[in-house]
Fold this protein.
Amino acid sequence: MNNDKITSAQLACMLFLSILATSMLTSPSLAYGIAKNDMWMTPLIGSLGGFLTVALSLALYRRYPGCTLIQYSDLILTKWLGKPISLVFLFVCLQMNANQLRQFAELMKLAFMVNTPIIIFAVSMMLVGAIVVNLGIELIGRLSLLFTPIIIIIVAVLILPLIRGMEPDQLLPFMADGAAPILRGAFALQIWFPTYIYAAMFLPYVSDINKARRWLNWGVCWSTTIFTLSFLYIVMSMGAASQHFSYPFLLLSRYVTIASFMTHLDALIMILWVLDVFIRTIVMYYAAVSGFSQWFQLPSYKPITLPVGLLIVLLTFWSIPDITTYNFLAYIVLYYYTLGNICIPLLLYIIALFRSGPAQDEHSPAPSGSGPSVLHGEGTA
Amino acid sequence: MNAPVNHLILLIVAAAGMLAYDWRKLRGARTIIAYLTLYISGFTIAFLLVINPNLPGPTQVLRPLFLPLAKLLLKH
């Protein structure tokens, strides 16, 4: 279908940046609303969702090499059941695209460009995304590898100057309400961690597949570290005020001064936000476009790039009239993201366990005897 | 009433431009069918949304489905 290849490290960077993009700014207020000042522990438990989805995507890929999730759902569930199931997955993918685009546009309007209509941000981002998606997966991989250090440095520059002002007392009382709020907060973070299931859409393009497990698991570890550090930072600097702001990190960045003359570092947040959401847009957009082309069984994904982009822009605004409705949606979004990104792959994996032999023989040269050892390896991941 | 007319004209221009840009790339019946399915459904929704911005959409479908679960997470 195409000759583009990416490396496992690039794939890990792509997914790492995709998660970082929206989580950095919006997850603190969501997590603080549920877990209060224990929220720094939620990513440690929530990362299990990330490890689970990495393990699922690799296990399914090993049973059906060279296939993406859309293709092997046909092989696993037959065509009549597989098509509707993968359409639900694609719908969730479109919704993820639309939600992040709306969030990008709303933040740009709220904080930086007050008079611009939000559809301008959405459409321009989608058009740039369409150009990149048409240029292929290799470019997406290289771009994300290039941007990762830049974004890490920006995050560090924003966090380090405020270390003196942090108050570790804010972390007390420790687990005042028991473990339940932490578990609920960890569940709320499943908006972000299961994004790693999109590895299942990109694994066929990975050239060094034997390193994929290590790199993807490292990716989940990096995400957990960044989540934990930024949550600690926000709790220790803002305390109970965290939940009153939609974007606590943005607020903090306005207080940062470096060497008493570099102020207004929220411009850095804008750089971070645009670069990061751009990566997330192209990664998810590529997943949606290639998913649709595999769903229709087309020879090339390129002709349908623009119509899929149109659908994404429509879903960005359709029945979400204002920011209040959008903010409330966060709690509903969690459930259908979980449905699409954890439940569907898990269902596919469980059914694939029961369906032995014939389906995997037509794609894989590996003998069917390798099945049990694959399953055995799964438990350790 | 003035604004929707302008928006409709803009949308027609966008629709025509997109089709003109993509038409040369479409090869094979399967690609054309897939393209037209996405294209027609997309622009139908777009036109309906310009005429009536309050058109019920995915939010109205998903909210009743997941609202009880969302309340479960938020209690306390």
DSSP finds 14 helices and no strands in chain A.
